[in-house]
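pinging the channel bc i need a second pair of eyes. not urgent but kinda urgent?? the chain im working w is below, pasted from the shared doc
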Amino acid sequence: MDREIFLRKFITIFIYVILGRCFYLQIIRYPYYYNRSKENCIRTIKTGIPRGIIYDRNGRILAKDVPSTNLVFVPFDIKNIEKEIEILVQITNLDVSYLRRKLNKSYLNPFDRVILKRNLTTKEVSLIEENSYNLPGIFVQEGIKRYYPFGFKTSHLLGYLGEINQKQLELLKNKGYEMGDMIGQDGIEKQCDEYLKGIPGGIQVEVDALGHQRKVIGRNEGVPGNDIKLTIDITIQEIAFEELGSRKGCVVIMDPRNGEVLALVNNPAFDPENIIPYLDERKHPEKPFLNRVIKGQYPPGSIFKIITEIAALETGAVKEFDRVECTGEIEVGDRVFHCWKEEGQGWVDINLALPFSCNIFFGTIGLKVGVSQLIEYAKKFELGKPTGIDLPGEAKGYLPSPKETDPLNLSIGQGPITTTPIQLVTLISTIANGGNIWQPFIVKKIVTSKGETLKEFSPFLKKTLYIDSEVLDILRKGLKNVVEFGTGTRAKIVGLEIAGKTGTAQRAATEAGLPTHGAFACYAPYDNPKIAIVVFLDYGSSPQAAEIAGRILKRIFLPEKIEEENETDSEILEE
């Protein structure tokens, strides 16, 4: 009897415990478990992270997001890998080894969608839909892609997007990035990635217990990141790109009054919307991804004579009308030093030596100044160190120690010294503005999606050099004469005074018949400088570089003359 009573009480208590637990779970904890069940059966499939728009200084769009379609697959649903690879190879241009690697890989969650290819063409979408029965687990999904209206013309300036890699993910894991996200890999896209990156959007789908999609029930709209306004003038950018043409090299244009970069162009360039073909170095040995303006390190050649002249005049090593006889060569010890003009320049002073770029004159005064002084003056103009431009990966060039070079070579910008085109445009800008070294910059303003200014960047004056006014006058007069009657006459334009300096640097011993680098640094107008330009050619002469700079300046300052010439040419053709 006692046992029967005990059993009844036990059962009663047990029932009350069960009822209490049910009440707790279904009534008290209902909101929590309801949300958990929703999370289990409703998933958001990311369609991409929207990015802010990049504008030029006048509000023209340089980069924005547009809708796209991607090829994706669910690892769990793949049935016959080899058969599906065979079909995909015929439809797309995807490599067999790439497809095998992606489809055979073990994924942490086999029900997650993995992107096989982005930005499918209309034809590819149609063919995939036609073959959907034979491609279980593989399908087309909407997404977003980055659109660059000016394509090759702005590729090195803006950079491109790429899928985040493991190393980047480890560095950025605390900033909300996930594997598969697209991030800026170079240029402004990389420099301002944290500002451009928005909140991801996606499609809400209902899945079964195994994770298979059953139906689409809604969507979460992504929120774009901040917009970026640049100092670049896309009209000038296009002019520079067109005038550089097919020549390998670069052009950088800056406002010498404040350091605003107005154009930055490189060739060869690449398609920022489809970089894959350019990754094969065998097909593209010219390094299409190299931003020569900030990463190319070259001997400055005769452009360095600007520094040699300032050093010589300020130290008293030479006076304005001191003359040196150039016979075409001089002997220093057991070495013969040549001028570019074999027969020599005759008797020249500094007013003729700079326009005609006489190596013998500058070598002679370089010996008087001494290698240590030349290096110190180069340091004053910040050669051999990064300019601080707001682009990733800037090189610093190289300024040798006195033990590594000699005054003959250094005085004409040869030997172990290297500079970048952005350093040279900063140098010529400093001469143009009278001694101010401005930090070059490209990002002008960062604006929220609501139009509010988040950050605004002002010109930054790094330092001001005191250059003796008489020295500066002599130098500027010489730079003007370079274009008027010297080595830079191919830059000469009727109606516009230009000051500049040519520079030809040896790639290797000229006796071997190898080509040279050709460069030209200039500013205009001469009396009121508003534009500073450096044209640098990988293979070419300085007169060719000067001609390119002249055509650019003519289109910027005298567009009406271009129109008149075009009309005249048309009339001649009609006749």
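so The chain has 20 helices and 23 strands. and Residues 43-230 form a domain with the Penicillin-binding protein 2a (Domain 2) fold (CATH 3.90.1310.10). — does that match what u expected or am i reading it wrong
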